[in-house]
Design a protein that fits this description.
The protein is mainly α. It has 17 helices and 2 strands. The protein has one domain. A two-stranded antiparallel ribbon has the order 1-2.
Length: 450
Amino acid sequence: MATETTGIIDRTMLPLPKVRKYNQVWLGLAVLVAAFAIGLPLADSPTKFTLFMITGLALGYILTRSRFGYAGGVKRIWMTGEGSLTKALVITFALASMGAAGLHWAAAQGGAVAAKVAGEGDSVIPGTQNVGFIGIGLVVGGLLFGAGMIMAGGCASGTLADFGEGMVRVVFSLPMFIVGSIIGVWMTFEFGKTSLGTWGTKIYLPDSLGYLGALAVTLLGLLAVYAITRWYEQKRKAEGLYAVEEWSADEKELPEQPADEPYKFFSNRTFHTLFRTRWSFNTGAVLLAFMFVFILITTKKSWGITSVFSEWGVWFLNLFGIQLTHPAFVEVNEAVAGGVINLGTGVRNVGIILGAAVALLLASRFAWNRQFSMRDASIYMLGGLFMGIGARLANGCNIGALYSGIGNLSLSGWIFGIALWAGAFAALKFFAGKVNIIDNDPTKLPKQFV
C-alpha cells in the first residue's frame, strides 16, 4: 500500500516488470473460438446469439482490464478514503444518461411512448422498460442488494467478472444468487398482491421536466455525488485515513522507449501495451458508457443482468424433473421453454464471464484464487442470497435498477441507489474484520478489491 505522494516521477528509473511467458494467450484465443463454435449451432437465431455474445465479451473484458466494479465504488472509498472509482462511476452514469436522453428524444419524436403507458401496438422508447416502480419493494430490495454485494465480494456484473477472473468464492455466491432470484420472484408476486405492494408509482423524469430538463437534473445529481466524493476524500486525508492502491509492476505502463532503441511492433513492449497495461477507471467508465448506448441501440432495451438468473435456476430444476407451477413463474417457464441458449441476457452474462477470463488469459495472468475460509464462504453464500432476493424485489440490480435506471432518466434509479449505498455501508461496518474481503484497517486495500 502506498500513501499519496507528490512530485515528478522519472519513468526511465522505474524497474521493468517481469516478462511473463505467453503460454495462456492461445488458451484465451481458444475460449473466444469455442464460445461461438459451441453456441452458434445451438441457437435458434445465430445473429442474436452473436450480438449478445460479442457485447458480453466486450463488457467482461472492459470490467477486468480496467478493474472496474460498481460495488467497489462504495467499498473502496469507505475503506481507504480514495474515490477514483466512485468518480469514474459518476462519469459513466453521466455519459450513459446523455446518450440515452438523445435516443429517447429521437424515439419520442417518431411517436414512441414510455413503456409504462405503452399499449398493444405502440412503439416503446428504448430503455424505458427500466423505469422502475417506486415502492417498498424497491427500497427493501436495494438495501438487501447493497448488503449482499459487500458480503459476496461483488455486485451482479462484478460476480460474473470475478468468476471469469478465477475467483473461486463465486462458486459459493453465484449459485445462491440464483436461488435467491427464484425466491425473489415468488416474494415479489405475493407482495404485489397486497396493498403495500401496490402502493407507489413510476416516475419517468421527462414526463414532467422534458428531456433537456430531465438530463439537466440527472447531471446535477451526479455532480452532487462527485462533489460529496471530493469532500469525503479531503476529510479522510485530513484524518490521516487515506490510502491509494499500488498497481502491480506488470500492470503499469512500461518506461518510455530509449531514443536509441529501434522500434519493433512484434515485441514484448507492444504486447505489454496491448494486453497487460491496466486501463484507468476513467477509461473503463467511457467504454462502459459506450457499451450501454450500443446495447440500447441494438436491442431496443437497456443493459440488465439478473432477470435471467431465475430462468437459469428454473431450467436447472427442470433437468431433474422439478417443475415450479406457481403463478409467479408463468413468464419464467415460458422463457425457459424457448431454450436456455436463446435467453439473450443469459448469453451476454456468459460472455461477461468469458470476456473477463480472456482479458487475463491474453495477458498470461490468469490464476485461481482460493484465499478464503469456510466461514468466509458462508458469508459469500448469504450475500449471494441477499442479492438474488433484493434484485427481484427491486426488479433489477446495480445494472438493471441503478445504472439503467439513472441512465434512462428514471427517478427509481436514484431511490434504489440510495438504498443500495445504505445497505452496503451497513454491511461494511458490520462485517469489518469478520470476512477476508473486508479488513478492519481502513487504510488497507485487499487484493480482491473490486
